[in-house]
Design a protein that fits this description.
Elements (H helix, E strand, L loop, with lengths): L11 E4 L5 E2 L8 E6 L6 H12 L1 H6 L2 E6 L4 H10 L6 E4 L3 H6 L4 E3 L13 E3 L2 E5 L5 E6 L9 H14 L12
Parallel strand pairs: 3-4, 4-5
Antiparallel strand pairs: 1-2, 1-5, 3-8, 6-7, 8-9
């Protein structure tokens, strides 16, 4: 399990229209929001990433970079980027399922074609949303077993305003006896 205030696993992958992503050298002033999504086959992911794309500038104004990644290959990721009209959001591809597990993500098996008629990969990771500090420690994390009911990016932007103003630390760090 990833722990707040502790170093996250390393993370690097290719992106469509930007440089290769490497969390260790991302260089964000206040951190990076990483959205792990299920893939092109997921209509909820398209809606979710559309919301994220709209708020890339709001995150940037707060010194936070954004990136989205799935285990899809470049072609399916390009189709997703086109679908959500991604211009500012870095879209990564080729996430290994082992790396997904390193980040605590759940892995699902294919159920065939989805409601939008796109075949699910044989294996793929379920969603996760993380904010990682410039020192590569976990600030915020949310992992899901299902595609439904995800954290809202607009709420995360608002929470960042509070956290920045109040120098609010990452929470959930206690590992002692209970």
């Amino acid at each position: 399990m990833l722990m707040p205030r502790q170093k996250t696993p390393d993370l690097s992958f290719e992106t469509l229209d930007h440089e290769a992503f490497d969390l260790a050298t991302d260089g964000a002033e206040r951190g990076t929001v990483i959205c792990f999504y299920r893939g092109l086959h997921c209509p909820i992911c398209a809606t979710y990433l559309t919301e994220m794309e709209k708020l890339v500038g709001a995150f940037a104004e707060r010194g936070v970079k954004t990136v989205a990644v799935s285990s899809d290959g470049a072609e399916r990721t390009r189709d997703m980027a086109d679908k959500i009209t991604a211009t500012g959001l870095r879209m990564g591809y080729g996430l290994s399922l082992q790396k997904a597990r390193d980040w605590g993500l759940y892995v699902s098996t294919s159920r065939g074609k989805t409601s939008i008629g796109i075949e699910e990969p044989a294996l793929f990771s379920e969603p996760g949303l993380f904010m990682v500090t410039p020192e590569q420690t976990l600030y915020y994390g949310s992992v899901q077993t299902m595609p439904f009911v995800r954290p809202h990016f607009s709420e995360l932007v608002g929470a960042l305003d509070f956290a920045i103003k109040n120098e609010y630390p990452a929470r959930g760090e206690y590992q002692g006896a209970v």
